[in-house]
Amino acid sequence: MITAKASLLVTIVTCTLTVTAYANATENAKERRDARDTKQSSRQDARETKRDCREANEKNNADCRQDKRSDKQKGRQESRAVRAGKPATTK
C-alpha cells in the first residue's frame, strides 16, 4: 500500500521531469530554428554573390559557381555551430 507521502513524492518527481523535458524540447526547437535561419540567409547571400560575380564579369561561370558553393558551405558550418550551441561567426 502506497502511503500519502510516497504518492506525493512520485507526483512531484513526475511533474519535475515533465517540465524539464518540455524545457529541453523548447530549447532544441529554438536551436533548430536559429540554425535553419542561418542556413537560409547564407543561401540567399550565396545567390547574391553569384549574381554579383556574373554581373561584374570578373570570372567565368564555373568560378562564380565555386564561390557560391563556398558561401553555402560556410553557411552550413555556421548552422552546425548554432545547432551545437556555439556562437555563429559572421562575415
What does the secondary structure layout of this molecule look like, with pairings?
Layout: H1 4-56, H2 61-83
Helix pairs in contact: 1-2
Explain how this protein is built:
By secondary structure, the chain is mainly alpha-helical. It has a domain at 36-84. It has 2 helices and no strands. It has helices at 4-56, 61-83. Helix 1 runs antiparallel to helix 2 (61-83). The radius of gyration is 24 Å and the shape is rod-shaped.
| Number of beta strands | 0
Task: Find the structural class using helix and strand composition.
Answer: mainly alpha
Summed over residues and divided by their number, the pLDDT gives a mean of 79
* Morphology: rod-shaped
- Secondary-structure element pattern, one letter each: HH
Helix content: over 70%
Strand content: under 5%
The Rg value, from CA coordinates, equals: 24 Å
Major sheet description:
none
- Put simply, the count of helices is 2
- Low-confidence runs: none
Distance between the ends: 65 Å
